[in-house]
Amino acid sequence: MAVRSQSIAAGGAIARQGPLGRLLEREAIFSWLMLAPALLFLLAFVAYPFIYGIYLSLQQRAVAQEGVFVGLDNYVDNLKNPIFWQVARTRSSSPSRPPCLS
User: Fold this and answer.
1) What are the percentages of helix, strand and coil residues in the chain, rounded to 5?
2) Which of 88, 60, 54 has its CA nearest to residue 73?
3) What does the alpha-carbon distance between residue 93 and residue 101 come to, in Å, rounded to a whole number?
4) pLDDT tens-digit map of 2-57
5) Cβ distance 57 to 74 under 8 Å?
6) Where are the domains of the chain?
7) Is 12 left (phi over 0), alpha (psi -120 to 50) or beta?
8) HEC string for 12-28
9) 89 and 81 Cβ atoms separated by less than 8 Å
């Protein structure tokens, strides 16, 4: 019974590797592959809702109806509203307290 020995590279891997194995040996590619799930999660659950919220804030829109683009008019209307400034003063005077206790 003959046993054939194979050469083993540093780290315990077999010396012959396919193209995917050689790609994974490159530290930059391996690092990006490990980061990909976390980056996709952040894009899906943080970046997309944030950008969509900005997009919605630039529209005049009723619930379940098509929106009309109004640009920064919603922000200008808020800056002219005295209730907005009352809330801004209240929140800036006690930012650590919850709104229900202000």
Assistant:
1) 60, 5, 35
2) 60
3) 13
4) 555 554 555 555 556 777 777 777 787 788 888 999 999 999 999 999 999 999 99
5) yes
6) 19-101
7) left
8) CCECCCCHHHHHHHCHH
9) no
